[in-house]
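testing teh design pipeline on a random one, pls ignore if ur not involved
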């Protein structure tokens, strides 16, 4: 049924144009896809937090810094978050280490920016009595590894399997 009133036709056209612009803005390309071959990568400004009682969750945010083979630096705001399943418990405030997670690239493998994000699987260990140590040892499907150990404020003893999603904010 077509609107016969000119006001309704104008409103229908405005709604259609607005919807088209909205959908076009949602379909943007992933900025990491513009990164060429990765030479090195790290996440800076990281402060881990978590809450674990057999099952729990860890989270952090930071900036993914990538250097490509041409020496061009790229930076993207990212978040790290995901569940852990293990034994005993751990309550973490923010970590206070150097705040840098080096992403270790597999030797001899060509990687691009999009190979750095996604699901990482591995382990989390923590021993904290007021102040202590927490460690995340993870690997993604592209072979990129995270081996991060930081000091933190909290209480608990925890050893777990962990799934962390590294994604753009």
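output:
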């Amino acid at each position: 049924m077509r609107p016969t009133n000119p006001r309704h036709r104008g409103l229908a056209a405005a709604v259609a144009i607005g919807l088209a612009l909205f959908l076009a803005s949602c379909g943007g390309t992933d900025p990491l896809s513009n990164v060429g071959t990765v030479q090195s990568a790290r996440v800076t400004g990281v402060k881990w937090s978590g809450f674990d009682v057999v099952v729990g969750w860890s989270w952090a945010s930071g900036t993914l810094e990538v250097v490509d083979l041409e020496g061009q630096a790229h930076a993207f705001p990212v978040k790290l978050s995901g569940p852990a399943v293990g034994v005993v418990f751990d309550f973490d405030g923010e970590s206070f280490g150097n705040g840098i997670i080096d992403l270790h690239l597999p030797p001899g493998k060509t990687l691009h920016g999009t190979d750095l994000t996604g699901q990482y699987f591995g382990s989390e260990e923590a021993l904290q009595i007021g102040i202590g140590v927490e460690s995340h040892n993870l690997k993604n499907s592209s072979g990129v590894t995270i081996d991060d150990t930081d000091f933190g404020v909290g209480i608990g003893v925890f050893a777990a399997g962990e799934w962390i999603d590294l994604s753009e904010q």
